[in-house]
Amino acid sequence: MHTRRRRLAPSVLPFLVILLFLPATAIAQEEKEAEERPIPERVRFETRHSGTFNGERLEYRAVVADIHLKRGDGKAYASVFTTSYLREGVEDTDSRPVTFAFNGGPGSASVWLHMGVMGPRRVDVPSDAKHAGSPPYEIVDNPLSPLDVTDLVMIDPPGTGFSRLVGDGKPEDVFGLREDARTVAAVVREWIREHHRWNSPVYLLGESFGTTRAAAMLPELMGGSEPIAVKGVVLISQAMDYTGSTPYVSDNFIAFVTYLPTMAATAWYHGKVDPAGRTLEAFLDEVRAFTVQEYMPALFKGSTLDEETEQSIARTLAGYLGLDVEYVLRSRLRVNATRFVKELLRDEGLAVGRLDARYIADEVDDVSERPSFDAADAAISAPYTAAIHKHLSDFLEVELDRPYHTSGPEVGEGWVWDRSLASGGEPHYVNTAPNLAWAMSFNPELKVMVAAGYFDFATPFFDAEYTLFRHGIDMTRVTLTHYEAGHMMYLHGPSREAVAADIRAFILGG
């Protein structure tokens, strides 16, 4: 049962500019104005619902609304949509946490977390990494949502979901690492202002690039004229330091190290490794030790490595990765992760997934160096897209005459990682881990939860360990947990239950 309250924005007609016979200065001014987008009236859709979450029956409101981000002159440059789930009947909102959640990309809407693990409903896709097929897809209640212990705010950054640039907003205002952090931090601050939640505990929950963003947001939120002391940060498939998650750069020494355990886990999953009585965890502990104590020194020695040691390393690598020794030797011990996803099951004509290596695809070209598409992405993108549209229109009763971009094309076209490099700076890997280290020093109560999937080729789990251990982050306040799934570990039923329970326990223990 639910009721609704809706206010729709009126249509805004574009204006015409007459260019003929105008002075040059007037033409320039008119051209500037012609580039500006309309600034629509703000919209709000509110519905009421009830549900059972973690065994507790409760009433809640769902509010889909936009926030206008404004410049100092009061003129809006972006309209950013949030979907909020707010528990009804809470007498003391000061003690009620608010969790702000977002996905990554850059350019991804919050659809994956929203319809996968955090929201009150989720799309039901096969847990065993099978392709979800064609519609209709089943959308089911999600009793694992942490709505019983925290209010939830799903954020779609500009260019994703329904969020758009408006007025004189330009890509350089929002489509960059620092610009994005300032933008999403501003959304959090303005949401808190509008809902009068200044005294509520605040949590950030990001996935993939959303973890890059979450760390970068911390100085933006904790500093300035209205500082907010973030209580906790949840990093799903962390990607703070890109040195260890960039395997496609041939001279990236670190990526060969950080991806080795993920490749070994994948070989184990697909039966290319002899278990020899070991559990997966015990096997990966063995691989970690070899990686740090033998493999990394061998790579460091390069061409000075003696032949006997090279042969020994190659045999061990081949055994861990389920590959032919000759292939490992031809690669000079440098098995590239982007090639591995095609090479592992080449003899069967199959490629494993990037986002989740449990998935497989039977590609047309069996001799190509790399897969032509990601098996995991192909298996789940359509159901998640269908689910968010149906959830918004039927359950939340949202009516807007614009597309909901699960992946925003405008972001991809306008994104620049670091605009300062145009002035002659030297290129470098993206790294926001120092922001997290600083924030934990600045706020001694800030705690962090990190969730990593064993079969994730986008953000490998060993890179999470490498990143967390080397940037001065206080590990006494960090919880790191691994799951037998991939980048979106909630695609796997048992892992979804585990990570949902871990998120809830993290917030309760805050």
Write the layout of secondary structure elements.
Layout: E1 4-7, H1 24-35, E2 44-53, E3 56-70, E4 76-87, E5 98-102, H2 111-118, E6 121-123, E7 139-141, E8 151-156, E9 164-165, H3 171-174, H4 177-195, E10 202-207, H5 209-222, E11 232-236, H6 253-269, H7 280-301, H8 307-321, H9 325-330, H10 337-343, E12 351-352, E13 360-361, H11 375-395, H12 409-414, H13 433-442, E14 447-453, H14 461-470, E15 478-483, H15 493-508
Architecture overview:
The chain has 510 residues and is of the alpha/beta class. The chain has 2 domains: 298 residues, 3-Layer(aba) Sandwich (Rossmann fold), CATH 3.40.50; 122 residues, no CATH class. It is 37% helix and 17% strand. Strands 1, 2, 3, 4, 5, 8, 9, 10, 11, 14 and 15 form an 11-stranded mixed beta sheet that branches. It has a two-stranded antiparallel ribbon with strand order 6-7. It has a two-stranded antiparallel sheet with strand order 12-13. A hairpin with a 5-residue loop joins β3 and β4. α5 runs parallel beside α13, α6 runs antiparallel to α7 and α7 runs antiparallel to α8. The longest helix is centred in the middle third of the chain and has 22 residues.
Task: Give a quick set of tags describing it.
single chain; 510 residues; alpha/beta; Rossmann fold; 2 domains; eleven-stranded mixed beta sheet; 15 helices; 37% helix; disordered N terminus
Would you summarize the structure shown here?
This protein is an alpha/beta fold and 510 residues long. It has 15 helices and 15 strands.
Judging from the principal axes of the Cα atoms, what is the shape?
globular
**Ends: how far apart?**
33 Å
Helix content: 25-40%
The CATH class designation of the largest domain is: Alpha Beta
Number of domains: 2
CATH superfamily of the largest domain: Alpha/Beta hydrolase fold, catalytic domain
Q: Round the Cα radius of gyration to an integer and report it.
A: 24 Å
Number of helices: 15
CATH A-level architecture of the largest domain: 3-Layer(aba) Sandwich
Contiguous low-pLDDT stretches (5 residues minimum) are 1-34
Averaged pLDDT: 92
Q: Beta fraction of the residues?
A: 15-25%
Number of strands: 15
**What is the CATH topology of the largest domain?**
Rossmann fold
Describe the largest sheet.
11 strands, mixed
What's the order of the H and E elements? EHEEEEHEEEEHHEHEHHHHHEEHHHEHEH
Pairing-aware structural class of the strands and helices?
alpha/beta
